[in-house]
Amino acid sequence: MGGDEVDAYLADVGEPKRSTLEAVRRSIRAVVPDAVEGISYGMPAFRVGGKVVAGFAAFKNHLAYLPHSGSVLAELADELVGYECTSGSLHFAVDEPLSDVLVRRLVEAKLAQLGR
Q1: For the chain: N or C, fewer Cβ within 10 A?
Q2: How far is CA 33 from the centre of its chain?
Q3: Residue 36: C-alpha distances to residues 3, 44, 53 (Å)
Q4: pLDDT band (50, 70, 90) for residue 80
């Protein structure tokens, strides 16, 4: 359970996607070091107080950051110029992790929505 599930997920992801997602994982953990890692909807997720605050996933042609919120990405739209977004996912290149600063802003926006 937990981190082992995320390790298993990443073990099935080929390079360079795996290294890129590992970097995003480290960025998320830097913001919420006490988060519980696990799988939600088949994808790695980080829970704080039982609520998912961040997640990520590998797809065929891109990677995605998942805020598990329909409004976090819209709230940070000015900082996401140049990225492709849906209402619930931020797509990024398979070989270029999101910056630590951007991950911090994304996680903190979700935490703020949860009143944390």
Answers
A1: N
A2: 14
A3: 8, 11, 10
A4: very high
Write down the residue that tokens 């290294």 correspond to: 19
* Fold of domain 3-113: Aspartate Aminotransferase, domain 1 (3.90.1150)
Residue 48: phi and psi, rounded to 5, are -125, 125
Strand partners for 37: 46
CA dihedral sign of residues 46, 11, 101, 106: negative
**SS3 of 40, please?**
strand
pTM tops 0.70: yes
